[in-house]
Structures are given as C-alpha cells and as structure tokens.
Amino acid sequence: KEEILGERSEAFCEETLETFRLEMIAIANGEESFAIESPAALSNGKLVSTLIFMKFPKQRELFKEIIIAHIDISELKETQRALEKAKEDAEEANKAKSTFVSNISHEIRTPLNGIIGFTRLLSQEDLNGQQRDFVTTIQSCCDTLLNLINQVLDLSKIESVKLAVHNEPFRIDELLNEIGKVQNLGAQAKG
Predict the structure, then answer these.
(1) Distance from C-alpha of 41 to C-alpha of 10, rounded to nearest angstrom
(2) pLDDT > 70 fraction of the chain, expressed in percent and rounded
C-alpha cells in the first residue's frame, strides 16, 4: 500500500536490519527466498501487519544486497480474525441448539411414556370395537411420536458424531397403513 512505499526497511523490524539479516540467513540456511509475517510501525506511528519476503543471492559470498518486499496484510489478518470469530460463534450456537433439542426431546419423552403405559393398560380392558380402534390409534400415534422424538435425538447424535446406524427390515404396507390411520384421525378432527 501507499503507506509502506518509501519507508525504510528498519521500520519493519523490531531489531536492527543487520540483526534481522543475520537471522534470516541462519533461518533460510541456503534457501533462495524466505517469507515471514511481522508487525511494523510506520513513521506515522500506525501499526500494520506485513508479510516480509526476502530474496537471497544464489552466491552467499556476494551477499551485499538482498531483495526485500514488504506487503501490508493488515486487511487480510483482520478478515482472518473475523472469520475465526464467526466460526467460533457458529460452533457455540450449534452446540447450544443441540443441547436444547436433546433436552426438550427428553422432556417430551417422559409424559409420552406415561401416555403409552396407560394406553397399554387401557388396551387390556374389556372394550367394544370402536373403543379398541381408538386405543389402537392412540397407541399408533404414541409410537409415531416416540419414533419422531427418537429421530430428533438421533439427529443430535449425528451432529455430535455419536450415532450408530442400524439397518432393519420393515414392511412398507404396514408403515403406510399406520400413516393413513394417523392422518385419518387428524382429518376427522377437522371435520
């Protein structure tokens, strides 16, 4: 950038240029070039992040000159910090969401298990045909809801990489029949 043009190289090093040159030679150890990030204080007092690139001569005994390029990477570093912060915030929000979903699913499961238990007890009573159909529908709805809650919990496990996949056979006609019963009950309730 324009702010760097015309600045002396010493402005970009906390140490003297000679010390810096000797360190680079030792670090480069025969390499033709070397790059390092370094903070730099400009003559106007502004602190910038720079990438210092050095090109060394191939013959070390002719080491009278080196080519040094200073590149202002302040905006790049600021963007990098902002991206790291955004990533941390997103990870924190995802963790909070997963915790909430897991907690609420467990809270819903507790009363649902009570309904399932009482429905099973009710199904053992002497019921007429219509009552038995109602109890069967309640059981089916409870099983569907419990399955849905388990899937939500499985989703939380997937996000936290704790899920084991189980392949199980099922009958599609039975699944569609159960879905039909649940949908039919909802349609009848709406009239």
Answers:
(1) 10
(2) 65
Residue 150 to residue 171: CA distance in whole angstroms: 20
Q: Where are the alpha helices (DSSP H) in 47-160?
A: 74-123, 129-159
The continuous run of DSSP H or E covering 35 comes out as strand 33-41
- Between CA 81 and CA 86 the distance in angstroms is 9
**Closest Cα partner for 145 from 186, 182, 102?**
182
Residues contacting 120, CB < 8 A, separation 6+:
139
At 111 the pLDDT is 86
Q: What is the largest CA-CA distance in the chain?
A: 106
What single DSSP character describes residue 185?
Answer: H
CB 117 within 8 A of CB 146: no
* The two three-digit tokens of residue 103, written as one number: 């907690």
Read off the pLDDT of residues 112-139 as tens digits, 9 standing for 90 and up.
888 888 898 888 889 898 998 899 889 8
Q: Which two tokens stand for residue 165?
A: 């996949």
**Torsions phi, psi for 133 (to 5 deg):** -60, -40
pTM of structure = 0.48
Residues 139, 130: Cα–Cα separation, whole Å: 14
**What pLDDT does 7 receive?**
53
Report pLDDT digits (tens) over 90-117: 988 888 888 888 788 778 888 888 888 8
